[in-house]
């Protein structure tokens, strides 16, 4: 079991920036794809960004050009840099790590991101 601990959530103004971090422990990291998801109240949990073991990235169309996902396989961390944030992007943000042997995910605890003035 991979344990994922998130940090960096909090309050940001519309148009501002916030950086989320996720630290993995308890298992291998460098061979696993990782991602960030978000879930607003009453909404589904949506994929925001992904990064493969080799560093290839993918983004939801709504965040392209504003969000950047990175990973550091030495530190076993994945980060999400969020710029020019919009009010509608307030949500609980979750990091996730893909299992190697199946299509399951392990999840971080979630971190609240509030976008407000």
Write up this protein:
The structure is a single chain. With 117 residues, the protein is mainly β. It contains no helices and eleven strands. Strands 2, 4, 5, 6, 9, 10 and 11 form a seven-stranded mixed β-sheet that branches. Strands 1-3-8-7 form a four-stranded antiparallel β-sheet, with no helix packed on it. Strand 9 and strand 10 form a beta hairpin.
How many angstroms does the end-to-end distance come to? 39 Å
User: Helical amount among residues, as a percent range?
Assistant: under 10%
Q: Which spans of ≥5 residues are poorly predicted at pLDDT below 50? A: none
Strand content: over 45%
Name the overall outline.
globular
Strand count: 11
Largest sheet at a glance? Answer: 7 strands, mixed
Give the mean pLDDT.
95
List the total number of helices: 0
Oligomer class: single chain
Order of helices and strands: EEEEEEEEEEE
Helix-strand category: mainly beta
Features:
mainly beta, single chain, globular, 11 strands, 117 residues, 7-stranded mixed β-sheet, 4-stranded antiparallel β-sheet
